[in-house]
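ugh finaly. both done.
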Amino acid sequence: MEAVITTKLIHSWLRKYNRGEVTFSPELIQEYTNNVQERIGKERNKKFTLRMSNLGRPVCQLQNDKLGTPRISTNEYQRMYTFMAGDMGELWLIMVMKAAGVAVDDYNVPVELLIGGEKIKGTADIIIDGILWDIKTMSSKSYQKYINFGGFKSLEEDDPFGYVEQGFAYAEGLGLPFGGWIILNKNTGDIAVSEVPINYDKYKSESLARSAKTIQIVMDTVTADDVQRQFSPIEETFNKKPTGNMILPVTCGWCEYTESCWPNAEYRKSAVSSAKTPPWFYYTEVNYEKDSTPTFK
């Protein structure tokens, strides 16, 4: 599938904007303003529902969501900014694409799909020249994963936020081909396109099958005993050498239910890092600390 949009078109318009040669029309500015007001004023739904945006999340997280397990989140006060920064970046990028002459058919499109015996709803990001695309704003590290470190194949193998499931579910619900992701690096302002493979039928069918299975598992969840923990501690490495310490995977570190699944885990600074601001991890076992004699259990 050939990309129907190019970053060259977007970059060219932005360069002209910065030189004062073009600007946003009053109509686009009003459209953007209305969208911002709608996003900021939207109330968060406290009731759990399966949506296309969460289909690809770890099953154990969705099960805990459904059960109403108490959430524990570090730096929870940052949450609104994190989501709103992403939303505002997405709306800005849509406005830029429209101003730059990208063939935007529609955006923020309601979708519904019968899958796994349930009607799952969602909102697709943008349709360009008859092809559905998903817009993502992300950190520089995640941006590089999409662009330089394996592209779709790398994402398909390690997709903690379920972007593959989201994209194929949106496309299936709308009966449109899925193009891939339009990505905004929120740290640098870089914009890129990451396409799905030309022949993606195999990936699409596997993705929809995973989504259907997830739906069935979550809908059958009744008690905490039904929760299927998908992750296990892994051995920490430092300078490519094992330390003997056991830590939870990064996905668990971002999860709000880590302390429910792993009540004995300790959230603490790295036991081995010499950095001025060392990273933090959930440790399930500490056998070695920097500048100390290792004691193995």
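ok and the 2nd:
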Amino acid sequence: MIAKLEVDKKAKSVNLKEILAKDPTNADANAELANDQMLKRNYKLANTYYGKSLESDPENEQALFGYGQSAYYNDDLKKAKSSFEKLIQVNPQNSLGWAYLGKLEGDDENYAVATRYIEKALEIDPDYYDYWVDYGRYLYYQGKFADAEKSWTKAISIDSENFYAYIYRASLYDENGRFADALADYKKIIEVKPEYYYAFESIGILAWHEKKYTEARNAFLKAYKYNPDNISYPMMVSATYIAENKETENRKFLTNVLRNRD
């Protein structure tokens, strides 16, 4: 743990190997190795290490959660569900266990059940950003749009620099014809996450419908910058030039696009 805090990866590795040489199923050492593999997104190996940790300590909360989460990312949903169920049996106040049970039900489109799980997680930890985002999703898919909006707004109040809640809320506004509200959220998205080119695309479409062709063009150009493989973006840029009768600019732009694609 000292080596970990000092970011001394070599010393940490040596110490863990020494521990496991004497005690191959040491719960803490295996869990730490598993955590390292999770960071590398090697979920299969992480699951193996978490499993070894549980061999010696079957009620280890860190290992139970990690085992379930790595199984979830490996698409082994039965194993994931079993681990999260065991986790909340060991500690009913573990909000992550409830939240992931909600994810599993949500992925299976059992949104009413998912809602009950995430509500339990929120009872335990009411200031967890991701829970409010998920809660909004489950409510939205049940047609409870006003409640979904409140949930995403709550998430934003917790962390205004995270872009996920803005994405969902902007889409909701867009679908319900609240274009000014949607535009405000899309602009916030590109402020905190400019590489999320879908927001530029949405801004461009909204501006196009309002015949604000210069604004639309600038938005589509930004989207094209971040996703140059999408041919629809330069086509929309071209459409804005055509709408403004700017034939020379359009011809020059399309020539550059074709040249760059060659």
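summary for the 2nd one i guess: The chain has a mean pLDDT of 92.
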